[in-house]
Amino acid sequence: MSRVITFGTFDIFHVGHLNILKRAAELGEYLIVGVSTDALNFSKKQRYPICPQHSRAEIVDALACVDEVFYEESLELKREYILQCKADILVMGDDWQGKFDEFSDICQVVYLPRTPSISTTELIEIVKES
Ligand code: CTP
Questions:
Q1: Which of 114, 115, 118 to mutate to test the pocket of ligand 1 (most atoms within 8 A of CB)?
Q2: Does pTM top 0.90 for this prediction?
């Protein structure tokens, strides 16, 4: 049984998020999702996500294609998360192409194409402008 892991913020959940999770799930039999914490997002982007971590995690966890959710507290812990979850495959969007190849010693690393023309950043801009 192949275990798949992926990571993301999944703020203002949109169809690009759904697509990557569905495609990630198709690569194995069990999908685990690391949802980044509010604090991790603040440290990366100097702003908090619109939706708090418990809501983001609850939405992701409710999806039929997702089996397990945990909080990603630190970018530096990716290797530990992959090992702890006994993941066989790491899936990332191709906006991260090549950036996670260092983990190919412990799992298969797969980059999937992003869904075009949608992102949380873009949605925030559209709402701000309207
Ligand atoms: N993703 C995707 N297609 C999109 C948007 C996101 O496949 N159009 C994927 C990302 O590649 C990532 C996962 O969804 O693997 C979570 O991405 P996240 O950064 O939470 O979403 P974005 O919409 O990209 O958010 P932001 O604009 O804040 O970067």
A1: 114
A2: yes
